[in-house]
């Protein structure tokens, strides 16, 4: 399976590596060779498939798109139990810059009586930067940074929130290479309305105002407006949550993903 390519990912882990033209040329050549040698290629996003076809020479018919799934038993709708009066938002996942956690903090600073829990992995420097940002914006008392948790604990976090934020940035990792964000699928499975960036990789997973509430990528104002809209329209929040849960049950279970993957292997063996 291809979830990410070194030619795209490397610079996010080692900033400046993209300036080494010879290194990038070799990496891209290796990627083309791997694509050419593969009998079949599995990827979780149509965006990634199109990138492999257009930029790495993959034959379109050789690439199978099998989206990620969600554990619909573990992540299931439960009655919300938010703490206090604040409307509680949840971000979970890595704290890497391309995930847009900074935008989430800035958006919460624009919305009175809203709080944000950030659950995920990040470097010490990244955690310090997010803490400084919350302090600077005067929302340190409304933003809580939490370490990674188990899947069962994450299910509890989802049950305690009013909505999930997935403010992915517009960059080559999300827009060119593609991804299939688990935070979106797991939030949908848990019966929580999801506010996410209006990117093609997110639109693959659901429709705006039917399964998700999408907002302009990179816009703090748009995220804040979406939060205010959801908070003020309980019927919309409930509709998004129930529609999203049904969609996950139909299309995005791990059982379905496994069945599709087995079919790919059987096609190779035959």
What features would you describe in this structure?
The chain is of the alpha/beta class and 270 residues long. It has twelve helices and eight strands. It has helices at 6-13, 21-37, 46-56, 101-109, 124-137, 151-159, 172-177, 182-189, 200-203, 220-232, 234-251, 254-269; strands at residues 41-43, 63-65, 87-92, 114-119, 143-146, 163-166, 194-197, 213-215. It has a six-stranded parallel sheet, sandwiched between helices. A two-stranded parallel sheet has the order 1-2. Helix 4 (101-109) packs parallel to helix 5 and helix 4 (101-109) crosses helix 10 (220-232). The two termini are 20 Å apart. 39% of the residues are buried. The mean pLDDT is 95.
Distance between the termini: 20 Å
The total count of helices amounts to: 12
The dominant shape is globular
Structural class from helices and strands? alpha/beta
Largest sheet descriptor: 6 strands, parallel
The value of Rg in angstroms is: 19 Å
Could you tell me the number of beta strands?
Answer: 8
Quote the average pLDDT: 95
What fraction of the residues are assigned to beta strands by DSSP?
Answer: 5-15%
Q: Strand order within the widest sheet?
A: 5-4-3-6-7-8
Low-confidence stretches: none
Task: Describe the structure in brief.
The protein is α/β, with parallel strands linked by helices. It has twelve helices and eight strands.
Question: Characteristics of this structure?
Answer:
270 residues, alpha/beta, 6-stranded parallel beta sheet, two-stranded parallel ribbon, 12 helices, 8 strands, 49% helix, globular
């Amino acid at each position: 399976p291809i979830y990410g390519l070194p030619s795209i990912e490397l610079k996010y882990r080692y900033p400046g590596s993209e300036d080494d033209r010879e290194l990038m040329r070799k990496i891209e050549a290796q990627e083309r060779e791997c694509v050419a040698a593969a009998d079949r290629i599995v990827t979780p996003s149509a965006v990634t498939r199109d990138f492999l076809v257009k930029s790495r020479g993959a034959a379109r018919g050789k690439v199978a798109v099998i989206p990620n799934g969600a554990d619909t038993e573990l992540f299931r709708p439960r009655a919300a139990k938010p703490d206090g009066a604040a409307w509680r938002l949840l971000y979970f996942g890595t704290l890497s810059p391309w995930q847009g956690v900074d935008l989430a903090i800035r958006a919460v600073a624009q919305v009175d009586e809203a709080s944000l829990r950030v659950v995920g992995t990040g470097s010490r420097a990244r955690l310090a930067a997010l803490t400084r940002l919350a302090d600077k914006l005067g929302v340190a008392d409304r933003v809580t940074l939490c370490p990674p948790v188990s899947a069962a604990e994450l299910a509890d976090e989802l049950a305690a929130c009013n909505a999930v934020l997935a403010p992915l940035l517009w960059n080559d990792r999300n827009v060119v290479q593609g991804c299939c964000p688990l935070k979106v699928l797991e939030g949908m499975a848990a019966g929580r309305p999801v506010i996410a960036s209006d990117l093609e990789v997110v639109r693959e997973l659901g429709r705006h105002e039917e399964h998700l509430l999408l907002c302009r990528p990179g816009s703090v104002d748009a995220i804040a407006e979406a939060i205010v809209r959801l908070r003020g329209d309980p019927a919309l929040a409930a509709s998004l949550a129930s529609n999203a849960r049904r969609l996950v049950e139909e299309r995005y279970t791990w059982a379905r993903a496994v069945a599709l993957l087995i079919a790919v292997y059987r096609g190779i063996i035959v």
